[in-house]
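Running this now, will post back.
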Amino acid sequence: MKILVIGGGGREHALVWALRRSARVTEVVCAPGNGGIAAIARCEVVDAANVEEMKLLVERERPSLVVIGPEVPLAAGVVDVLQGLGVRVFGPTKGAAMLETSKGFAKEFMRRWEIPTAAYAVCGSVEMVRGALEKFAERVVVKADGLAAGKGVVLCESRDEAIAAAEEMFSGELLGAGVERVVLEEMLGGPEVSFFAICDGTKAVALAAAQDHKRIGEGDTGPNTGGMGAYSTDDLISAETSAWMLGVAQTVVDGMKAEGTPFAGVLFTGFMMTKDGPKVLEFNTRFGDPETEAIMLRLETELVDIVEAAVEGRIGEIAVKLKPGASACVIAASAGYPGKYVGGKVISGLDAVVEGVEVFHAGTALRDSRIVTAGGRVLAVTAAGADLREALAKVYAAMDGISFEGMQYRRDIAWRALEKNL
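Update: finished.
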């Protein structure tokens, strides 16, 4: 099989790495790819959000299967166009991807299908925000109703902060472009869990659970990012909780099918484990990043088999198996991230990484035969182990040997889990 992977980050590097492990896969092409992906797959420099460019690439390459990594091509309707060409493509249609691309749609969908979530209000103006805030406690979450590359969620400690955040979202000051709606949510408390299910339009099958670390600073402080690290373990959630979360995913699949927009692809549900039980924070309609990097190292079932079964509407035939133990991923980011940063910094130490540690490239480029930084999140250093401590020890030992000017990373990934085991 020849497989085309669309995207160019750490998630796509991990997907390419996992797909290439199958004897059934003869070639992997990645568009646009990055400096690290280029070492294991042929990269084609195209705009992954440009539907016409994607169409022309697929017509030229004629892959057996297309796997879409990021959310932007899904929002642009790339799946719809490729399906219209008769191409087998893994990912939801534009309509089904609204579970991620519209926070308002997702909240209304959860209300219709009685899925536990935080109290909310959808607002189309600052005036509406002011009025709706009267129904919330002081602490509230303001979310942009649209894609925002992990920067469209602001945790506010007061109503004044919430109004300011909404004003910046409407004006475009926060995200670079104004939004038409924002969603206000009550601020829930508790640890977060990312639950991944593979769906074929009719059935959902559990893939894995992981925990992401969104804040830039140690101890979960500072502004939100696209994710600074993640881990996956056997005991992250109980079997009962996993079954319940899979039930939520199946409810989503049933609901989307009933409403005329079947969901096929990866359903990534972010749960907050509150004192009143798990509640849904958000849906993503693709593999998460950096959770995917950690999960792929534990995946025993061949990824190509899972993806193909979902595309062909027979996901129920697949038994997804994970290696026992744990895996962890730590992100090395550019100085200034999640704000402004400067790329082009030469990365040293990649050749010295020991076997058993995988360095997935999130934002790199190949220039003059050297790997340089080309993004806010630069590298996703990942390892598996018999337990979480072993996996983390491997990752941080590798991090000690990697460097680039201004490199920053969190040294406390999985700190809550480690504290529980002391």
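The longest helix spans residues 239-258. More later if anyone needs it.
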